[in-house]
Design brief:
binds thiamine diphosphate; binds magnesium ion
Length: 625
């Protein structure tokens, strides 16, 4: 039996029939499709989506990049077992996907991209929005998606959709490979009919596998942990992707080994778990970073070891320190010349716990007592940063976080990606549940937060979902507020106004850049932007897009506004201006370095001084071999 459908109709029907399965639960792989239409998809996928509206939900986005962010937010909240597709027109609609695709791929989060492409049959060259490449007739702007995709195919013949679609599903559901998957769809091919074998549309289930460890690697890993006196676990995003939080807690409780977390891994243990020592690295806690400096064995679980985590290879300072990398991806398992333990995080952690239990292995009581005391001291530091002496004053940024901390429970999800908040949150936030802390810090993309909040809320419709945004991030991408309003998706936006880039301003100052180009201010006589703040009312802007906006001036107002927003069942924004406009936030200082190269020669004294300090830090960098 064959069924005659267009390529676009066949693809939509195929996608609606795909499922994933892990740990005995089965769910749809592609929960919905986002789309902005133009030539290149309006008559193809657009027509197919209306034809199959009963089996494929649709969401209307405003910006293609934002649609990918929403899909990524949904995928992360769904533990990568479900995601969304994104369809675009050709040309600018397609290239707007590139940033979102890079973000998805870097964070190992699945998303299916369906950009329209120029005619395969080339009846008129060029068509509107077509790039002409004189030396290569088969290149289109969609080729810019190749390096940021984990799988890329261009479906230039109807029947080629069959292998392309199956390969796309394989990559989306592979825990090692997953990321952005792109099927470029020439617009004439989308509308072309073909007689499809009926089996192409049968329900299909893709098992998201949990491979266990190799026995030799496992034995070596157990041996390394038994031999260590000051072991430290670093939990990365892989712990969440694998839903390995309980297995991690069991290993930590069985052995007494402390657990620090990367941005992606925070929440792996709740903040009040005795073995949780908080964030690690440049934005880490004093507790975790001190443990890191003196550890003899660092056990990475599902981490890519970015420069923020390793303090640009200055953090793990003990002579002879070794790494053990439990990771499902061999690429990450071999980093820092570590012992690889290539396995799913949950499987590997369970096997490690079983192996260590046989030997009754535990770290020394003195080690446990010391990090326990340091953890307690850091909690007091957080209390101090959160507390506001005068509730009628304008809050600092940590006080904003303290006010939010006071209204949330374990069901709330907070989302953030860029600015000065990621650092403050990594140091201060008290994650109450495994999926409360949603930081996109692989790509740290300004503008991620609001669309991602929509995606998270679609995956978790009963939970309070907060997008935490700075004024810079807000101006980068407020567009999807309109989407939330249109679809009645009750996201909450906490908008922190500090008139520019507090984060990059602070960084600029520390590297001799004198805050150049980082403030949203009028120019002064000397040409720098150091004049009065701009007469820009972002609260009114959010209101104009259809959000309800609560303006908070003082700490007291803020507490009331946050409580009101939390209870709201429509999209609601809390707007607050923070106290220190030109300095980074009043949070604890960075406990470890981050390598941002400083001008080797300069005339301005601030840059010369910054270079001296830079060279001192550089001298502490090491290669782990
Ligand atoms: C798309 C994008 N462009 C540039 C950057 C570099 N960058 C990181 S933080 C930042 C400023 C963020 O400003 P804001 O949202 O106001 O937060 P604040 O630093 O004031 O806390 C910039 C420009 C980025 N991360 N993402
Ligand atoms: Mg700002």
């Amino acid at each position: 039996m064959t069924i005659r459908l267009t390529v676009a109709q066949a693809l939509v029907r195929f996608l609606a029939a795909q499922h994933t399965e892990r740990d005995g639960t089965r769910q749809r792989l592609i929960g919905a499709t986002w789309g902005i239409f133009g030539h290149g998809n309006v008559a193809g996928i657009g027509q197919a989506l209306v034809e199959y509206a009963d089996v494929m939900p649709y969401h209307q986005g405003r910006n293609e990049q934002a649609m990918v962010h929403a899909a990524v937010g949904y995928a992360r909240q769904s533990n990568r077992l479900s995601t969304h597709a994104v369809t675009t027109s050709i040309g600018p609609g397609a290239t707007n996907l590139v940033t979102g695709a890079a973000l998805a791929t870097i964070n190992h989060l699945p998303v299916l991209l369906l950009p329209g492409d120029v005619f395969a049959t080339r009846p008129a060259d060029p068509v509107l929005q077509q790039l002409e490449v004189p030396y290569a007739g088969d290149v289109s702007v969609n080729d810019s998606l190749r390096p940021v995709s984990r799988y890329f195919d261009r479906v230039t013949r109807p029947e080629a959709l069959i292998p392309a679609a199956l390969q796309a599903m394989r990559v989306l559901t592979d825990p090692v490979e997953t990321g952005a998957v792109t099927l470029a769809l020439p617009q004439d091919v989308q509308a072309e009919a073909y007689d499809w074998p009926e089996e192409f549309f049968a329900e299909r289930t893709w098992v998201v596998r949990r491979p266990g460890a190799d026995p030799t690697e496992l034995a070596e890993a157990v041996q390394a942990i038994r031999a260590a006196e000051r072991p430290l676990i670093v939990a990365g995003g892989g712990v969440h992707h694998s839903r390995a939080e309980a297995a991690l807690a069991e290993l930590a409780e069985t052995t007494g080994i402390p657990v620090a977390a990367t941005q992606a891994g925070k929440g792996s243990l709740p903040y009040d778990h005795p073995q949780d020592v908080g964030g690690i690295g440049h934005t880490g806690t004093a507790t975790a970073d001190e443990l890191a400096r003196t550890a003899d064995l660092v056990i990475g679980v599902g981490t890519r070891w970015t420069d923020f985590t390793t303090a640009s290879n200055t953090l793990f300072a003990a002579a002879g320190v070794r790494f053990l990398n439990l990771n499902i991806a061999p690429y990450d398992g071999h980093k820092l010349a570590g012992l690889p333990l290539v396995a799913d995080a949950r499987s590997g952690l369970t096997e490690l716990t079983d192996g260590l239990r046989l030997h009754g292995h535990r770290v020394a009581d003195a080690y446990r007592a010391a990090y326990g005391a340091a953890k307690e001291a850091w909690e007091r530091r957080v209390d101090y940063a959160y507390a506001a002496a005068d509730p009628d004053a304008r809050p600092t940024q940590p006080q904003v976080l303290g006010a939010l901390d006071a209204v949330v429970d374990e069901t709330d999800v907070i989302i953030n990606a860029a600015g000065s908040m990621p650092g403050d949150l990594h140091k201060l936030w008290r994650a109450r549940s495994y999926d409360q802390y949603h930081l996109e810090y692989g790509y740290s993309c300004m503008g991620y937060e609001i669309p991602a909040a929509i995606g998270v809320r679609l995956a978790a419709p009963d939970r309070p979902v907060w997008a935490l945004v700075g004024d810079g991030t807000y101006l980068m991408m407020p567009t999807e507020i309109v989407t939330a309003v249109q679809e009645g998706i009750a996201i909450k936006v906490l908008l922190v106004q500090n008139h520019g880039y507090a984060s990059i301003g602070g960084l600029s100052e520390s590297v001799g850049g004198e805050r150049f180009g980082t403030a949203y201010r009028f120019p002064s006589d000397d040409g720098t932007y150091t004049g009065a703040p701009l007469p820009v009312d972002l609260a009114a802007n959010a209101e104009s897009l259809g959000m309800r906006v609560l303006r908070a001036r003082t700490v007291r107002d803020l507490r009331a506004a946050l409580a009101e927003a939390r209870a709201a069942d429509t999209p609601t924004c809390v707007y607050v201006e923070t106290e220190t406009a030109d300095t980074v936030s009043g949070a604890p200082e960075a406990q470890a370095w981050w390598d941002v190269p400083v001008a080797e020669t300069a005339t301005r004294p601030s840059a010369v001084k910054a270079r001296e300090l830079y060279e001192r830090h550089v001298s502490t960098r090491r290669r782990h071999l």
